[in-house]
Design brief:
- By secondary structure, the protein is of the alpha+beta class.
- It has one domain: Butyryl-CoA Dehydrogenase, subunit A, domain 3, CATH 1.20.140.150.
- Helices cover about 50% and strands about 10% of the residues.
- The chain has six helices and four strands; from the N terminus they run H-E-E-E-H-H-H-H-E-H.
- It has a four-stranded antiparallel sheet with strand order 3-2-1-4.
- Strand 2 and strand 3 form a beta hairpin.
- Helix 1 packs antiparallel against helix 6 and helix 3 runs antiparallel to helix 6.
- The longest helix is centred in the middle third of the chain and has 27 residues.
């Protein structure tokens, strides 16, 4: 049951923002499935070479979701049947979920620079015009050397990503521990059959 509860929490955490980034052109965040939500000032709208859009796929999150569904189905059926095969399936699928979640975490983290670059400036004429218009409106500062200090930050993982990883790992540890310490319900068979024969005494004993 601990594995089912942990995997359910992990499934909902996959839809939360896992990666955030900010830049001169706005802010962006992405979840484990690769969905990107961003705010932008369109500083590079007239640029001939705008920054490339980040390409983030949700392959590992999809695999993790499939493993979570298998785990939940196995737990529900095993409540009724109580079989060794379903217990083993629950343990394997829970461990597999943790592996996929960790792979998703590593993959999303590797896409940080790409998501950060999406929010950058363009150095051509259209990009400079956009920066000047943003400065005139008050949405950005022009890239003029020595004009003002600007804070820069790289893309970072969110607490949702860390919590999802810890939850999946905790569920895997709980499932393995529960499977190892499970009570033995299999019948015990003797390696050979012991037969007892009873010999009846025929006749009466002789008198002294």
């Amino acid at each position: 049951m601990y594995a089912a509860a942990g995997n359910t929490a992990t499934f909902f955490l996959l839809f939360q923002p896992w990666l955030t980034a900010s830049g001169p052109d706005g802010k962006a965040r992405a979840n484990a499935f690769g969905r990107i939500d961003a705010t932008t000032s369109y500083l590079t709208l007239w640029s001939q070479s705008p920054p490339p859009t980040a390409r983030i796929t949700g392959t590992w999150a999809i695999f993790a979701s499939a493993a979570i569904i298998i785990t939940l189905c196995a737990v529900v059926v095993n409540i009724r049947l109580r079989t060794e095969a379903l217990s083993r399936l629950t343990t394997i699928s829970t461990v597999t979920t943790a592996v996929f979640v960790l792979l998703a975490l590593v993959y999303i983290d590797s896409k940080g620079p790409e998501l950060k670059a999406t929010l950058g400036r363009s150095r051509d004429l259209g990009g400079h015009i956009g920066s000047i218009m943003g400065w005139a409106i008050g949405n950005s500062s022009p890239p003029i050397p020595g004009l003002r200090q600007t804070a820069y930050s790289s893309a970072t993982l969110t607490p949702w990503a860390i919590v999802a990883s810890m939850t999946s790992l905790g569920s895997a540890v709980a499932a393995v521990t529960q499977w190892i310490r499970r009570p033995t319900t299999d019948p015990i068979y003797l390696p050979w059959r012991i037969s007892i024969s009873r010999t009846a005494c025929r006749g009466k004993p002789e008198a002294d």
